[in-house]
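Troubleshooting entry. Yesterday's outputs looked truncated, so today I'm pasting the complete records for two proteins to confirm everything comes through intact. If either block looks cut off, that's the bug. Protein one:
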Amino acid sequence: MYRTHHNGELRVLNSGDKVTLCGWVQRSRDLGGMTFIDLRDRFGITQLTFNMEEDASLCEIARKLGREFVIQAQGLVVERSNKNHNIPTGEIEIKVSKLTVLNESKTPPFTIEDETDGGDELRAQYRYLDIRRSPILEKLQLRNKIALETRKYLDSLNFLDVETPVLIKSTPEGARDFVVPSRMNPGEWYALPQSPQTFKQLLMVSGIDKYYQIVKCFRDEDLRADRQPEFTQIDCEMSFVEQEDILQTFEGLIKHLFLSVKGIELKDNFPRITYEEAMEKYGSDKPDLRFGMEFVDLTALTKGKGFSVFDNAQTIIAINAEQAALYTRKQIDALTDWVKRPQIGATGLVYLRCNEDGTFKSSVDKFYTEEELSKWAEKANAKKGDLLLLLCGETNKVRKQMNELRLHMGNELGLRNPNIFKPLWVVDFPLLEWDEENQRFHAMHHPFTSPKPEDLELLNTNPIQVRANAYDLAVNGVELGGGSIRIHDRKLQEKMFQLLGFSKEEAQAQFGFLMDAFEYGAPPHGGLAFGLDRIASTFGGTDSIRDFIAFPKNNKGRDVMIDAPSVIHFNQLDELGIQLKTKES
């Protein structure tokens, strides 16, 4: 063994022990007669000391060590006279008797410290160096802890960890597939799984009863802070269950993770709201409940007063930004510019200030009397010192815009505390959504989601009103996961494909293997999948999942460290029978 201990392990009780440590040189300090080296590994930092009077040659070697040199140090553990209480090993140091340089290092392209001088792109290019920094290492350790505790919890409930294939069949639902050519089957392609959806259903038909897998999934879609082309799911499925069984089981998992990983006990049952209620109150199917500002519909109180913007709008919605009446006109103008950005798309912003003297000031007060404005405030439960912000337009569009403004105000007013966690279940999603452009239905979740039993008749008469037996879990405005009770009957599955525009032949060609399996005694079943990356980032108090992934892609889907994706040699293309189409052709 190169070492007897790691660098976060030794304490005062080890004083007098002879030890051997290895690691990277974090920093060195030359004080003339004494040289000090901070030695780092993933477990922590230990201070090494070298004394010129006791061993000049050894001290000279220590003085020549550069940052990130890999070294081995042998010596005696001694109690420090000048203790550092900021690190666990700060009460001891190693009086080095032998020093070996295991490998030298070039000067790193950025400082490997908690507060680094490296930008995002540079650190991504040298990700293997970035991971040496404590903030990144701690995030990967947090992710590891979540995965470990997940396995413990599910194993305790007799879930079986089963691997499913990575090279599968491309199916025309959900996001775009990543596809892989088959050399042995010219002209044919595999797809990388967007999820193991059909396989976990087949495992239920197989009698596995309780399945889980911490599994890589792949989606070729536009990226953002909480999306990567490859991501990790905690994928689960159960047989002979109803929705309530699944909600109880996996609410238990999330509570277990909060307690075992974060030390936070969530005693109360998670609140549940319907999709319709979530959209009406928050304009989002993953609302952040850490603060109020629920939507207030002021349509009836604002239309017909001569203000054409409101008169021509389908819906007028307000939020009450409590104690924000001190916002200056300049700040309100900045909010107006913010909602007009293309990403939000609002045409403008109306405000109502509830002054401390009981009067009201609005950007549209020439169209409304003081009494009419007071009714706005009354409807929104606004008090002196509050500020109402109003948006108007087509109902679904204005709800989405107000959701963005609500979250923005939550940030501006410091209401989105990352150390507070507010989980909730959103249930009763629509089964289908209508695509106006293509004049067809799409599955809100996926084609294998079961309708609510009481809505089955509506499949024939009013499909858009059918509710899905589906559910999502959101925490602090982030969807951590979701799932559904699945269809397990061939006739119902065929009906679903028909509603989605599949011909009988297309459905059989794409999903015949699953529907055939349903004819051999498929049990009622359902499940859900959590995003492991999203759980980690939520627990870590950040919006981005990238730092919780060892080697993430950038927002263009590129790995700048290994320079992927990249071109491949024409011989490989020829072997696969692939000819690239040029821009000219």
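Protein two, checking that the full record survives here as well:
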Amino acid sequence: MKRPSQTKRLTRYSVVRHRIVVASLMLGMLVLTGQAFKIQILDSTRLQAEGAARQLRNIVVKPARGRILDRNGDVLAVSTPLDAIWAHPATLFQAREDWPRLAEALDFSPNRLANILERAKGREFVYLRRHLPPAEASRIESLAIPGVSSQREYGRYYPAGPIASHVLGFTDVDDRGQEGIEKAFDSHLSGVDGQKRVLRDNKGRIVEDIESIRAVHHGRDLQISLDLRIQGSTQKHLADAVGEARALGASAVMLDVATGEVLAMANVPDYNPNNRSSSGMEVLRNKSVTDVFEPGSTIKPFTLAMALASGHFSTETPIPTGPGVYRIGKHQISDIKDYGVLSFSGVLIKSSNVGTAKIALELAPEELYRTLSAVGFGQVSGVELPGEVDGSLVKRERWRPIEHATLSYGYGLASTQVQLARAYSVLASGGILRPVTLRQRSASVPGQRVLSRATVQQINLLLEKVVSAEGTAKKAAVPAYRVAGKTGTVHKVSSSGGYEENRYQSIFVGFAPVSKPRFVLAVMVDEPQGKYFGGEVAAPVFARIMSDALRFNGIKPDANTASGITIVAHPVESEAGA
């Protein structure tokens, strides 16, 4: 039995303990009440905003890039819907157990996925895969892995594949133009991003579109001057020529005489813009505008046009070219044979270097420089393609006789393929220089007169004879049509600045039909093996492409209007032309 004193102490202890417990409970309740008050009243606005921020996101809405169409409305480039798989790294780090199946779905190794996420630590967004077909992206998203979602984007597709690849160019993974028309007209084609607010679930998936913040503006279509039919023909015949001649490559440019529009621009080797994985930088370059060469004898019509315009020569002026060589100081100019005395006309028809040099040396070198500059050499053409160079036409303080002489037949200047085609469009148009364009034009443009009509008419009659049985380019003839043009065969320039002994470029440039010129075409075959003269290698390619272009456009034959000139359809040459 407890003594009264013990009972009294126990009672006091129980009371104290009870009071402590009650005080603790009351203090806890007071703290909880205060915290609840802070959360519900004082911090409610901030916390609600933070909660919403974890669920609401502003996301970019990508525009579809505008289509590129040829002059007839055929689609050359179009953007197709694709999806990107992206992740919120912080959320995905909390779901490491899902990484193996995510890596498998992405066709990644586990290490690759881990490395991507490690590098993205602290970021809100990281791409895992781009440009996936929507069905594949949907399959990955259906795994319901926290922090992983898809986003709509667009990828470029080129229905014609390699055809026109150098003109069209391509886009990067973000659908921005990188080469060709895609780059030159990027602002026209690309459109403007939109933005919208969306609601995401706790796994980062979009569950609801809340509102449009900024409307997306899709890119505008662009109709260009190319004719896909002629472009395809050009590409095919160039490829055939490269194969037949075992050449390094080839290029060609066709222009509309009246408008300066580019109807075809092709290079071989080409590439497929839909799959560039095996294409080196060299093959991606549009050599028709970026690479230069010495145009050789194709310059002679302009030298002779200058001479006729001077009034010192007529088409019948005799020019002695024997014995087929001409010495200027320690230098020697030669023809492929001794032509003896040629008429002024014969100098062009037979492509005599000796005759051309003698004619040029009768006039001031500045006159030749002005003539070549007037028809566009040494200047960009206006075609608006990235990387276009202006070539080289040097204006010298003092001209040495040998420099003057070699310039007269196309050595000592450098031209692009498009510049050469443009210069011949001056002849085809009766002396009018027009800018070259890839924009479609519905009517002729005025241009600038740079050669007299009378002089050009005389030169064109001679160029028509170049393509006759008596000229150097019989294989450029197109049955039933009158064709005018000029061959060129040049030694390639070596890296040391001289000329390669056994490496050539074969050239033909001309126009048809002569009675009313419609198309100008320049063809160059680079390093043909075996036969290498322009009349043997480049001229037949010209004939095939030009024949197709005339047929595609329903141009009426005009051979019956020729003045005593017989056009021969691809006979066997007994002698090579220059």
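Both blocks look complete. Sanity check on protein two: The two ends are 139 Å apart (CA to CA).
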